[in-house]
Amino acid sequence: MSNITLRDISKALNISVSTVSRALTDSHEIGEETKKLVLAYAKEHNYVPNRMARSLKVGKTKSIGVVICSIDNSFVAQMLDGIDQICTESGYQIIIMQSKESYEQEKACINLLYASGVDGIMISPSFQTTDFSHLKELQSQGFPVVLFDRITEELNVHKVTANNIQGAYQATAHLISSGYTKIAHLSSKSTLAMTHERFEGYKQALAAHQVSYQEELVKFCNTSDPQKVDENVAKAMNELLKLQPQAIFTATDLLSTKVLAYLNEHNYSIPEDISLIGFSNSDLAPILNPSLSTVRQPSKQIGELAAQTLINLVKGKDIGPAETILLDTELQIRKSSSR
């Protein structure tokens, strides 16, 4: 967090410290033009209030910050439902912010939540995030942070996620048991543990069933820019389909539906021409054309456990050293992967 102070802002704008303080708290005593001037300068210079001084005045806020990639996602919505349930039962309100898969926006979300006085933060990092220093700094101050769904080994904090290796193994083994041996894997390009674990589960299933691994059948697609997702998926699919795979295992909810749409648009008959299975918690999976085989994650349970863990930390309970909780996935077989 930035070290800029109220006095620094006061000096830069040539106004009193008390005026700066009142402007930042939206006091009715301060004119709108002055508020805009102060807020713009504070935002530009990443001003963060002194949390220790604030806590001496107002104590705990009974609020939790939640940072997610995007709210327009069935899986995320289900996790948020679990988070909301636990927080409501415990008397905490939640403030939800979206990174939109942007590292810079993720940092801005964290700064704003911290400045607003939340008691702790839960975060599912963006696909762009490779530098976790903004979270490490919070951790170094003893501020409660919990990772959920998307996790990383870069941070030694409590984490809750699905057993990604297990889920990927289940999906790949299902395709092999259906008679397929030339199985492609499409995943998002990311340094997050989820990407590596699902890739690892795919490879483990191939090895366990004596199916040779072919590097050219694996593609990592950039999905961090919403404006270019369709273009990047099309490029990856064009390259994969030239190799004539018998089946495709997609590693994210977004990729599962994008690939299904691509195959339908290009007149592939599924599963006759090519089979498809992916990670997806979409309630639309059973009614897609064809119905989509998926690895379903315990989304609501992830949200519930992560929220309860963070609330316990906020309350100062001794819950032991940082640990990673892995929850079992469920294989749901539908028409897209059934011969």
From TrEMBL:
InterPro entries: HTH_LacI, LacI/GalR-like_sensor, Lambda_DNA-bd_dom_sf, Peripla_BP_I
Coiled-coil portions: none
Keyword entries, A-Z: DNA-binding, Transcription, Transcription regulation
Keyword Transcription regulation (UniProt): yes
Domain of life: Bacteria
Keyword Transcription regulation: yes
HTH lacI-type domain ranges (all copies): 4-58
An example molecular function term from Gene Ontology annotations: DNA-binding transcription factor activity
PANTHER family assigned to the protein according to its UniProt record, in alphabetical order: HTH-TYPE TRANSCRIPTIONAL REGULATOR GALS, LACI-RELATED TRANSCRIPTIONAL REPRESSOR
The name this protein goes by in its record: Transcriptional regulator, LacI family
